[in-house]
Amino acid sequence: SIFTIVHQETCIACGACGAAAPEVFDYDDEGISYVIIDDNKGTKCVPNQYVDDVLDAYEGCPTDSIKISKKTFDGNPLKYG
Ligand code: SF4
What we know:
binds iron/sulfur cluster, 2 helices, globular, two-stranded antiparallel sheet, Ferredoxin, two-stranded antiparallel ribbon, 17% strand, alpha+beta, 19% helix
């Protein structure tokens, strides 16, 4: 299982992650991405059926703003560097 979170300070609102994983990533009024399942806290496991989509989004983010980990982020996208 994996956790994911968006580092919103570096997100450029390109729209790629929501296209890759629409059940996991959505955008705020300015187009900045967030994780739907835990309000971008990185505290809930990504449901198994969406893991491949999240990995695609992770690999496709042009600014490396999508973080993934096997452990909770506790709301901090930079928790693991
Ligand atoms: Fe932001 Fe990256 Fe998603 Fe583009 S792919 S909207 S830069 S988090």
